[in-house]
Amino acid sequence: MTTAPRPRTSTRDPEELTRRLTAWLATRLPGARAAGVTVPASNGMSSETLLFDIDHPEAPVPSCVLRLAADPAAYTVFSVYDMGRQYRTLKLVSERTDVPVPRVLWLEEDPGPLGAPFFVMERIAGRVPPDVMPYTYEGSWLHAASDAERERLEAATVGLLARLHDQAPLPEAEFLALPGRGDALRRHVTAQRAYYAWVIEGLARSSLIEAAFDRLERLWPRDPGAPVLTWGDARIGNVVYDGFEPVAVLDWEMAALAPREVDLGWTVYLHRFFQDLTAGSGQRGLPGFLRRDRVEARYARLTGHTPRDMDFYTLYAALRHAIVMLRIAYRQAYFGEVAVPADPDTLILHHDSLRAMVQGTYWVG
C-alpha cells in the first residue's frame, strides 16, 4: 500500500476547471471570483472534489467544497451520479436532524458550466481519519490517540447513526426509496445485483462475489424491520472531527431507505477492512476499536433497537465493498495501471475475509 500508485481519478484539466468555475460563480454572486482552487490529493474516485475560496465581500461562506459528478471519460465507479439527490439529502439531514452536515449553497444540474452536474457546500475545518495510509497504521493521529480519546470518537460516531435513523422523517425521505419490488432490503440488494452486472459487463465474473450473493439469500432476515434514512457510506473516514467530536458528516451518494443494520454493518466492516490490512502487514492496529459487539450494544442503548442479523449485514457490507473494489481494479486495468489476473477474485483486496464470511468462519473466535 505504500508503493502502489493511486488509481487515476480524472481526465479533466484542473486549469480549465478553475476558469470555468470562476465564470459560473459570477452568475450566482456577481463579481465573485473563485480563489485558491485546489484538487485534494485524497480526491475520491466516485466523484471529484474541488476546494476553493470565494473572493467577494458578501460571500455566504469563505471556503467551499464543490462535488462534481464523475468524469464520464474516466471509467466511472458508478453508473449514475445524481447530484440533485445528494443535495436534497444534505438539506433534509441539515433541516430535520441534528446530525452535523456542511451547509449546501448551490446546486447546478446543467452539465454545461463544468461538464457535469455539481453542488457547492461549505468547507468545514477539522481532521478526517485517513484511508491512505489507513488510520489503523502507526503514525496516524487516531492511532496515536489514547484509548479514552478513541472511545469518545467511537461513542460520538455511533451516536450520529442513532440520531440519523431516529430523527430523519421517513415521508420526506421517500425520494431515497430504491426502485423495484419487495421491501426496502430486497430493493437494496437487487440494486447491488444490478450494479455487479454492470461492473462485469463484457469482463470476467467473480465467483466469490456470486457465492456471497448466494450466502446472503441463505442468511436473509425473517423480519428486516421498518426502513430508515441510511447514510450509505457510514464510516469514520467520511466524518470531519474537531478533536474527537464529529463536526461534519460527508459523502451521501449511497444514501437510501433501508434497514438500520445496513449502516451498522458498513461501519463495523469498513473498520475491520482496514484493521485486517494492518494486521496482515504485521502491525497491531486498533483491534479494540469499533468492535462489532461494542457498536451493537451502544446503538441498542441509544435507540432501543437491538441490531439483528448482523452476520447478514456485515457480509452484505463486505460484498458491496468487493463490487466497488472490482470496478476500481477493472478501471485501473482500463488505464493500464494493472493487469487483470487469471482469477479476478484476487483483484478484491479483502478476498480472504469475504471468503471466510461466505464460509461462516470470519466472526468465529
Automatic annotation (TrEMBL):
PANTHER family documented for this protein: AMINOGLYCOSIDE PHOSPHOTRANSFERASE DOMAIN-CONTAINING PROTEIN-RELATED, AMINOGLYCOSIDE PHOSPHOTRANSFERASE-RELATED-RELATED
CDD domains reported for this sequence: ACAD10_11_N-like
Protein's organism: Streptomyces rameus
Top-rank lineage group of the source organism: Bacteria
Residue stretches making up the Aminoglycoside phosphotransferase domain: 44-276
Gene3D superfamilies, A to Z: 3.90.1200.10, Phosphorylase Kinase, domain 1
UniProt protein name: Phosphotransferase family protein
InterPro entries: ACAD10_11_N (IPR041726), AGP_Transferase (IPR051678), Aminoglycoside_PTrfase (IPR002575), Kinase-like_dom_sf (IPR011009)
